[in-house]
Amino acid sequence: xxxxxxILAAVMLLSLGGKAIAQxxxxxxxxxxxxxxxxxxxYNAALPHYEKLIKECPKYHISIYQYGxxxxxxxxxEGDNSKIPAYIQNFEMRLENYPAKTKEGExxxxxxxxxxxxxxxxxxxxxxxxxxxxxxxxxxxxxPKSIYTYFSLAVDLYDSGEKDxxxxxxMYDEVTEKIEDEEGQLAERLTELIDKQExxxxxxxxxxxxxxxxxxxxxxxxxxxxxxxxxxxxxxxCENLIPLYEKLFEEKKNDVNWxxxxxxxxxxxxxxxxxxxxxxQQLHSLEPSASSAFYLGRLAERDGKASEALDYxxxxxxxxxxxxxxxxxxRSIAENFRGKGQYGQARNYYRKLLEIKPNDGNSYLKIANMxxxxxxxCGSNVxxxxxxxxxxxxxxxxxARVDPSISGTAxxxxxxxxxxxxSKSDIFSAGMGxxxxxxxxxxxxxxxxxxx
Length: 452
Fold this sequence. Notes:
Elements: H1 2-39, H2 43-56, H3 63-77, H4 84-97, H5 104-117, H6 123-136, H7 144-159, H8 165-198, H9 205-232, H10 238-252, H11 256-268, H12 274-286, H13 290-302, H14 306-319, H15 323-339, H16 343-356, H17 361-373, H18 382-402, H19 407-420, H20 424-430, E1 436-438, E2 446-448
Antiparallel strand pairs: 1-2
Helix pairs in contact: 1-2, 1-3, 2-3, 3-4, 4-5, 5-6, 6-7, 7-8, 7-9, 8-9, 10-11, 11-12, 11-13, 12-13, 13-14, 14-15, 15-16, 16-17, 17-18, 18-19
């Protein structure tokens, strides 16, 4: 009896295994029938096989969804909006069946963008779709377009009375920080390659492609940042901020986070109001911090107390742990020294700033300007003094490459400085072609004279 039961079980197992193997073979055939025309963009021929795959073999291979995304994007780009629900379903099924191989924030933001661009759902539902993407996986919510749309919807919801203005301000701070973080990461990678190139090492074909990609993406983030600021518009002007914060001050004066945010916004807009001083003093009494020290430094600077302001700024740097805030403090210290003509000290702080935010083109441009202004003091003869302009031009070039938002100004500045550097005839007359000029003034370093 036991022997008969064992044999029957074995027969059933083999039968089931055979069916499973047959199904896998069928999935492989169907995937091939789908993938081959999809590879050649013959999507009309591929579509029926895709539909069979997601119904019968949804877990068979991730390429189902990878080719599916390209296929539906093609259909929609061609004007077939009837495919939008299937496009969204393709993203959702990939996330469901291949979560470990899918960037959730990226996929959810693509779904949200599709809903927004095709007016699916209310503005609040569209906003919530982006919010889910950002809250679930912020590291992979990196699309410049989606970041802007997310914020733009928040402002629209404020305009329609569905969101509070403070919520919009808080979101602006978060979105701006996100953009700056992404810019910083891209600029750091770009700077490494630029430095490698400037040191005389040829870049590989892959590295050149990366340089182009980094510069393109930096340009996209720069545009988005400008669009975000434009969308916020008059909401964050002093005319709106001052009465809003005056109204809320008594209620919120013991809320440290609110004081930091409000004082920060008033400071950023240079709003002239006695309430700013009240906020800063209150903040410093509740929680002496980097931000309160920084604001006290701003007040001291406005009163013409440069040394006192510098002390406060240095305190702010020591107390601050947030890199983005520390950038602001380093900038203020650098500007303080630059304004007093202490260029070496100013450059030190611009460099500290650039270590944190390597895409800050303005810092490179300020260094370039200081080099140019020091030309007459750096060299033992006219040729060496004018050679300083080559170094200044290099700094301006770097400003343009890491920060597309100022590329026009930076490129024009670099061209102007090169026009002030020794000409080809000067190089020939001095016999300096290909030689190196070293600088013994505060600038230090050297520059290689172009070969004729």
